[in-house]
Amino acid sequence: MTSDDMTSHGRSGPAHGTLGVAVIGTGRMGADHVRRINDVISGARVAAVVDIDADRIGHLAAGIEGCTPYTDPTAAMDDPGVNAVLIASPGPAHEAALLDAFARDLPVLCEKPLTPDPASALRVLEAEQKLGHRRVQVGFMRRYDADYLTLKSLLDKGAYGRPLMLHNKHRNADTPPGFTNAMMIHDSVVHEIDVTRWLLDEEIAAVRVLRPAPTGNAPDGLSDPQLILFETAAGQVVDTELFVNCGFGYQVSCEAVCESGTARIGDDRGVFVNTAGHWGGSITPGFVERFEEAYDRQVQRWVDATRRGEVEGPSCWDGYAAAAVCEAGVRAQATGERVTVDLIERPALYER
Amino acid sequence: MTSDDMTSHGRSGPAHGTLGVAVIGTGRMGADHVRRINDVISGARVAAVVDIDADRIGHLAAGIEGCTPYTDPTAAMDDPGVNAVLIASPGPAHEAALLDAFARDLPVLCEKPLTPDPASALRVLEAEQKLGHRRVQVGFMRRYDADYLTLKSLLDKGAYGRPLMLHNKHRNADTPPGFTNAMMIHDSVVHEIDVTRWLLDEEIAAVRVLRPAPTGNAPDGLSDPQLILFETAAGQVVDTELFVNCGFGYQVSCEAVCESGTARIGDDRGVFVNTAGHWGGSITPGFVERFEEAYDRQVQRWVDATRRGEVEGPSCWDGYAAAAVCEAGVRAQATGERVTVDLIERPALYER
Amino acid sequence: MTSDDMTSHGRSGPAHGTLGVAVIGTGRMGADHVRRINDVISGARVAAVVDIDADRIGHLAAGIEGCTPYTDPTAAMDDPGVNAVLIASPGPAHEAALLDAFARDLPVLCEKPLTPDPASALRVLEAEQKLGHRRVQVGFMRRYDADYLTLKSLLDKGAYGRPLMLHNKHRNADTPPGFTNAMMIHDSVVHEIDVTRWLLDEEIAAVRVLRPAPTGNAPDGLSDPQLILFETAAGQVVDTELFVNCGFGYQVSCEAVCESGTARIGDDRGVFVNTAGHWGGSITPGFVERFEEAYDRQVQRWVDATRRGEVEGPSCWDGYAAAAVCEAGVRAQATGERVTVDLIERPALYER
Amino acid sequence: MTSDDMTSHGRSGPAHGTLGVAVIGTGRMGADHVRRINDVISGARVAAVVDIDADRIGHLAAGIEGCTPYTDPTAAMDDPGVNAVLIASPGPAHEAALLDAFARDLPVLCEKPLTPDPASALRVLEAEQKLGHRRVQVGFMRRYDADYLTLKSLLDKGAYGRPLMLHNKHRNADTPPGFTNAMMIHDSVVHEIDVTRWLLDEEIAAVRVLRPAPTGNAPDGLSDPQLILFETAAGQVVDTELFVNCGFGYQVSCEAVCESGTARIGDDRGVFVNTAGHWGGSITPGFVERFEEAYDRQVQRWVDATRRGEVEGPSCWDGYAAAAVCEAGVRAQATGERVTVDLIERPALYER
């Protein structure tokens, strides 16, 4: 892809020209974002790729017209072809990259987590407030899934009265080696944490975790499945079945129980088959197939908003709140008790 | 469904007592009716069993209190414990049994077909008219299936405007040895013939049969699947996919396309399973599982009506009309042409 | 219905003749059982009806051949036409009626609850043990629902490995006047208590109740919906959404999450409609429509077993265990804490 | 889908740069394609817009950087920024535009129909053959719908044996003023014609049209619904319910009946709701919502292939065959008879 004539993007912004994106981190997620921006997204191009693995980014950049490889994120941010940053490096590297982007006032799409813990998230929050305007969209991509968007719209207009409960299911066929109980909260349940806060427009006030006798298919030491219970500030109750070695595929569903009706998303779909004594269809194998369009839409919306000079979507506040609930969730998991979630007062920059 | 007031019974009758039934024919269907009356039906008992196989009926009768075995149907009908007759013998034997029952003014539940062809059906029709009141309920048991009943009720009240088309599917896992193209009409499509006439309350005026290149799973010479097309007297079009070696199970469905909506019955149901990469459930294996309750309800309704001194349900007219459409269907199958159906004028006894 | 020739039933039992049933209590449930035995059940008749309202039972008995009205349950039990007792009186009257039936060694179908609390249930348990054989089938009719039976069979044969969790939903359109939080446990959740114990073949060891901010459609003081959580002795976790003023109909569903698959029952079914911008169907209005066949099958199985001289189905132990979990549930509801369930050791008479 | 190797482009071409597209015709479809190329498609831009309405294209072009308005299609094709042509003008104008594009050896995406009748389609076919390589992708966009693609893939790998029948449903809420019986074939059924040929990889050999008594909701003179029947050269039978004033929304479904199974696509999906006595969801209102992604994917694939110097997708042969079946269909509709379809021998350029 060639660059369009963007006569005056410089640091003053793309002015409706093609957005030059520096992708920081080129592991699984980062490499996928590079492909996405190259082949799918309208109005953006990969201007720089950043990784500590110089060979990998050399090869990557060679296949993309006008793309420069960097091992130093700040050097990429200083590239004159770069007007925006997509952070897909490991979580512990996010804080530094975010602060570097703030220093250059660059718009950022930051993969979740914002940072791995509430304390570091608070530092990012404060830095963005000093800038005086939002710069970060956090990668909670379920907010861009067509089904979740429809559900959100039904709840926002009160189609069935106030929401009283959510029932979530989050099932993975299996887990990679080294997957821990804490990762079940930080990497898996974090999506239900964000979805709960977003759909209900309420903070999560308390967490409980129930741990059934585990499946024989779970690795030793992994408590799988688990039942995670949230109470919101408004008294709603949310349960999430997390079952990450269910064996049969990937399923993410959410049923909102409202005063005069329920609405559920996430049923498997596609071709309906009758054969060999059975009716039905195939279960989505993994999150890529399930949420590919949400990833595409997330990045397209970020590119579109950035080209308009705007910032939308999940904010640093959402990243911070998720980190705080995760921290409480891990404690609840360990103790079996109800653990309350403590948040600072919501800053004016992040007011609804 | 119509009902007759019957002022005088042939015999002093059950007078709300337990109905003594003579079951004529104890093959697959007959034996199942014996079991049904014994174990399931309230208000009736098997008073006589009739078959040419004296051993079989001897054993059958021995296990039932107060049941006498007969090899001669008229002897059974003359048994003082018999107040009603259930005919489950082969189709060619029906005419004689029906006339014998008429001679004794006994109420009859006659398994389909009423008789195997329109000419013999007409003779039965005339004999019943001479009696002056209806005596026969024909065993079109789909009219007693809960789903068909709901669909009938929706159509009768015009829930979605006038019905314009029906789409039927009729699938069997496989066929018994010796199953012929003509039997595909007489034994299988005959159900869609009755259902069409009953649901739409219209006679079938013309038939076409399309014969796709057959499945490799059909026996030599069997044209399977087929697409059967009816036009009703009111101009409605009805298509039926008949696929009797589909391999995967038994499915009977019907979708009525009306002016402002469609209504479909017959989707497989039951336990919903996620496992091994698939969602879905089991397909009903055969007609017994699918229509067991309809058979039970058919016989219970017959017993209940008979004890009240009434006759309800499919009449000899329905049996005659079905025979006429079958005859036209077999010709349409052979020629590939549109074949019209000729019926006599509907006698007063069978007015709607 | 007339009585069959039961030459020697007397107290020595029906000997495969028609069972003469005394129905004790002729309120909503009792009157429905009278109708059921009269019109639906094969092999039984209503020989006596018992209520304190002499007018009501006079009218009831007058319409049934050979049925005598009684205001005193023991007089009915002493009627020579009576060989079995169906108790459908209010719960507090059950203990006395059960002990009276034990004194006469009569088989009993006792509507749930066995008795209203664990202490009285224990007394019944001891009395039956003194008889030395089971006499009571308790009316947990979900065990006779076709879908639950299929699910039970899948779990028993380990189709998808060990069950790890159950997700239950129990929704009613609305509640009658005077319905209380305690009744939500005793009258509604009691079904999930029995279903959990039966499906998993494990006792319930602990209960938690979470109470979301209630719907505006609930009467004052009713905490609706609620989320009830069971832990079984084997460590399984069971959640039940109870929502008794959901407004839209009656829904009872159960999803078993097993090691290699999930199996769910209770989805609404029936006619599938497209109309006015919507696809779908009607929600079952109430428990009668949903469980009518289960009630029929429960009584038919009881009649069949009794005529064979056997006792099957839910036992007094099941009634006692349910009462114990209900008592714990009401405490859990009040305190918000985890409450353990204490049971006596299971007597030999009730061994699995 | 076939692809051609194109060794030489007419113009030096985009050479993997951004494709400059001239959009000819800016009515509903054309304007939508302009928006699509601008906002959604990666690797292409609108370089020229062509219409006889100079005001409309002046406004359109003013909002797009580097886009020139033209009233003369050939002038647009001669614009040096134009490397490809998207024809969205009315059908009768297609032949001239196609021949002009051939004269300049420009790649074309031509909205269906290729041309309105078989004779003109044959002239285009011959002109393309003279070029010696394929230049045209015809806009049968269902081939780019995710569900149809999955079904095609299942059929191609013989997942359930040979396909024997297809059941199609094609329903629209209502028709625009002036919609005629012939348009029901040319504008609506044409999609099922292409889908049938593509899915089964067979030509359509004969057509029948059955016309039920029409709905009261159809405009005078419109025979709605209709049942269209195809026979393929291999003897498969395909039925299509076409109901274009069904009132309740837009539904396109296709069930392939194969030797050992059936596979169906097109069921409505999305949020599952329980409310007000009903379960279910919303019906897709129109073709835009149903096939939006297919339109996007069609154009993206065309852009991607064109940038690689290739031609894929439905060819002029597909356009010609569809025109021939449409012509036969309109005759079948008028006569009620079976009408055979005559095709020329398939030229080498269009070999499978």
TrEMBL record, chains A, B, C, D:
Keywords tagged on the record: NAD, Oxidoreductase
Keyword Oxidoreductase: yes
Matching Gene3D superfamilies: Dihydrodipicolinate Reductase, domain 2, NAD(P)-binding Rossmann-like Domain
Domain Gfo/Idh/MocA-like oxidoreductase C-terminal: 181-341
Reactions performed catalytically: myo-inositol + NAD(+) = scyllo-inosose + NADH + H(+)
First-tier enzyme category under EC: oxidoreductase
Entry-linked SUPFAM superfamilies: Glyceraldehyde-3-phosphate dehydrogenase-like, C-terminal domain, NAD(P)-binding Rossmann-fold domains
Domain Gfo/Idh/MocA-like oxidoreductase N-terminal: 20-140
EC number: 1.1.1.18
Role description: Involved in the oxidation of myo-inositol (MI) to 2-keto-myo-inositol (2KMI or 2-inosose).
Subunit structure: Homotetramer.
Family membership: Belongs to the Gfo/Idh/MocA family.
Protein name as it appears in the record: Inositol 2-dehydrogenase
Gene name, Swiss-Prot/TrEMBL: iolG
